[in-house]
Design goal:
By secondary structure, the chain is mostly helical. The chain has four helices and no strands. The chain is flat and about 50 Å long. It starts with a helix and ends with a helix.
Length: 110
């Protein structure tokens, strides 16, 4: 699952940059968010592991797109004085959250 999401994440990141340059950031953001929501819910009902991996991989396209679009959007609306601090803070919080999710999975999964 991890390998599939890493590969398709890159596809989402590359396509998000192109689409956002062409159409702006709002519509691509909404579309990538809808992709994530639909495919994650669909993966919960996957009949087998292969379909699950495919759906999670495709959902990762949306995750890659969101990750590219969120920081420029955030920076655009922040005061100039606080942009650097808040940008670094969001990166640190994301890293800490990733570690916490890994620890939680290690604790929950037998």
């Amino acid at each position: 699952v991890f390998a599939a999401t890493c590969v398709t994440n890159v596809v989402g990141e590359i396509s998000a940059g192109y689409v956002a340059d062409r159409y702006g950031r709002i519509w691509p953001y909404a579309i990538f968010l809808a992709i994530i929501a639909f495919l994650v819910v669909a993966s919960a009902f996957a009949p087998n592991f292969i379909i699950f991996v495919i759906l999670r991989g495709l959902a990762s396209i949306g995750v890659g797109g969101i990750s590219v679009l969120i920081h420029p959007t955030l920076i655009e609306f922040l005061p100039v004085k606080n942009r650097g601090k808040i940008t670094v803070l969001t990166g640190v919080i994301q890293a800490i959250g990733s570690c916490m999710v890994g620890g939680l999975a290690w604790w929950l999964v037998p």
